[in-house]
C-alpha cells in the first residue's frame, strides 16, 4: 500500500507545505562558520558507507512538496494516537540522533519543526541553525523561514487557500515555534550549563510526550507543556499509556547523569519490545483490503443471483398465467366453432340455390373476399408486431387489474398489490388467494373487453378523406375554427371560430356533391369571436354558443334567430355543454374561474361552482344531468355531483399543464386532454378519498404544448388534433395511436405541397357513433374523414 493513504487516514495534511522550511533555507547563513548540526549533516553525508545507506529511513535531505512538517502533524486537532505510528516516528528520530552521537556530535535541534514526514511516515531531518546564534536568533530565523515558505507555496500552487495558512491554523506557527524553543530546552540549558548529549535525550523525552499526548487548543497545549517542565504528566497519558509515560519520565529526569545514554536507550526494553514491522503492518492492511474486496465481489454476485432468481420466478408465474389464458381462449374458440357449424351449413346451402350468373359473380366475390381477408390479416399482423410491446403491456395490466379485483374480496392483509412499487407489473407480488377465487379470476371475464379493444384497434387501417369542405371565404385570414358539433341525427354539423360566425352544413350533401365551393345552409352572426358550440340533443333545431366576451347564447337554427342571451360571466367562456339527460340544462366554463349552470327555458343561471383557476372545458355524462366534469388551468380534472356543489366528488391529478378538454367515454370513464402532450383515461370508480392519481392509460403520440386542438369520443375511439397539423385516433383500450392523418398544405401560388409548422388541427368531432369525423385546422381547412 501507499503510505500516503495511511497518512491521510490519520489526518495528515499534505497541503501544509507552507509551514515547512524550504530546501534553500537548510543552511542559515553561508557566510558563518559551519554549525554543529551542519557538521552532522556533512558527516552523515560523508560516511554513508560506514553508517548509513542512501535508501535508509535515517536521512538528512532537502524538503519535497509531498512532505509534511512533524510540528504540523503533531498539532493537527483531528489527530488520534496510533501507538504503532507514534513509536515508528519516535524510533526513526532516535536513530537519527544516535547516528550523530556515535560521531561525538550533539544535535541540539531535536524539535518537531526540524523534521518532516514523507510517505509511510518516514522521518527526515531538515533544519540547520548556527551554533553560535542564540535561541532567539534561531527562533527568528525559523519564523522568517516559515513565512518565506508560505509565500513560496503561493508561487508553486497558485492557490489563494494557501495564503498565510499560519493564520488559519489552530496553533499559529510563529508563536508555536517560539514556544517550542522553550519546551525543548533542557533544565541544564536553562541554568546556563553546557548542552551535551544528555540534552538531546531530554528533548527526545519531550518529543515522545507530544507524540502520545495530543491537545486540541493552544491554551491547553501551553499549560500541558509547562507542567511537563516539572515532570507532571496528564492523568490520561498515565492511565492509557503507562509504559510510554514511564519511559518518558526517565528521559526527562532533571539530572543529566540519570538520563540514559543513546546506547542504553536503544537497548531498553521499551525500544526493543517486539512490535510488528512497518512492512508487516502494510502487508496485513493490504491483505485485509483484499479480503474486503472479495467480500464486496461476493455480495455483488449474491445480489445478481437474487435478482435473477426473482426474475425467473416472475417469468415462471407469467408463463403459467399465459398458459391458463391460452387454455381459456382455446375452449372458447372450440365452443364457438361448434356453434358456428350450423350457421356455416346454412350459408353454404343458400349459395348453392342461387342462379348461374349470380353464382359466377358470387365465386368472383368470394375470391376477392379471400384475397381481402388475406391482405387484412397480413396488415393486421404487421401493425400488431409493430406495437407488440405496448399491446403486451396492456394485456398484463388488464389481467393484473382483474386478479387484484378478485383478490380484494379477501382481507387486504393477506394479499399484496398486483403492481410493484416501481409501477411495473409483477405476478410474484400476488399472494395466492384461494383456488376458487383464482379460477374465477382466470375465467373468460377479461377476454371480452381485451378482445374487443384488440379487434377495434386492428379493424381500421387508415383515415381516408371523404370530402373537402371548400368555402368561399378561404382568403379571409381569420378562419380559425374553434369548435365543431353534430346535431342529434348526424345530419348537420356546425362550425364556429374567430370569424364570429356559426356555419351550419349538411354533411351528406358535402360528401356527395363534388362542388368547387360549399355554402352553409344556415349562417348565424355573433358580435364576438366564438369559442364553442353545442347542439341540443332533444330539440333538433336548437344550438348554443359561447364567445370571447363571456356571453352564452342559444339559437334557433330553423329560423336563424337568437333565442336567449345570458351575460353573467366576467371573462371569456371557453366551453359549453347541454345535458343529454336534461336538455333544458346547460353548463359553461370561463376564464373567470367559474362554472355556471343555466336553465335554457328561464335564461338565467341556477347555480355556480367557483374555482381558483381558469375553467377550460365542461362536460355532462350522457346518462345524467346531476353530474358534471370540467378541466382547469391548475392541471386538474374535477367531477362534481351537482346536488352538492361545494366539494368535488373526485379530483383527478396527473396532468402537468392546463387541461383543455374533457369527454365522457361512458358513465364511469372519461378522457382528458392537456397541453402536456397527453390524453389521460380516468376510471371514476378508482378514486380514493375523492382523489384519483392513477389514470388507466396515458395516450401519447400527438403533439400539443400550446394550442387547443380538439377532442371527441365515439364508440371507444378517441380523436384529437396535433400541432403537427395531423389528426390522431386512439382507442380507449390502448395507449398508442390507432390511425393518423396529416393535412396537406398547398401553396396557393405554386400549387405545390409545402410544410407550414405554424398550422395545427384546431377542432375535431365524430359524426355520432359512426366511423366518420370532421376535422378543421388553424387556416379554416375542413375535411370529412372516415376510418377504413
Automatic annotation (TrEMBL):
Q: What is this protein called?
A: Protein kinase domain-containing protein
Q: Which PROSITE patterns match?
A: PROTEIN_KINASE_DOM (PS50011), WD_REPEATS_1 (PS00678), WD_REPEATS_2 (PS50082), WD_REPEATS_REGION (PS50294)
GO BP terms: namely: red, far-red light phototransduction
Instruction: Enumerate the spans annotated as Protein kinase domain.
Output: 1-271
Cross-referenced PANTHER family: PROTEIN SPA1-RELATED 2 (PTHR44218), PROTEIN SPA1-RELATED 4 (PTHR44218:SF17)
Question: For bias kind Polar residues, which ranges apply?
Answer: 419-433
The record's subcellular location field reads: Nucleus
Q: Which domain of life is it from?
A: Eukaryota
Where is this chain primarily localised?
A: nucleus
Give me the stretches of Basic and acidic residues compositional bias.
152-167
GO CC terms in record: nucleus
Which UniProt key words apply to this protein? Answer: Coiled coil, Nucleus, Phytochrome signaling pathway, Repeat, Transferase, Ubl conjugation pathway, WD repeat
Give the start-end ranges of region Disordered: 131-167, 419-441
Q: Which Pfam families match?
A: WD40
InterPro entries for this protein: Kinase-like_dom_sf, Prot_kinase_dom, SPA1/2/3/4, WD40/YVTN_repeat-like_dom_sf, WD40_PAC1, WD40_repeat_CS, WD40_repeat_dom_sf, WD40_rpt
Q: Which organism is it from?
A: Eruca vesicaria subsp. sativa
Renumbered ranges of WD repeats: 566-608, 652-685
Record GO terms (molecular function): identical protein binding; transferase activity
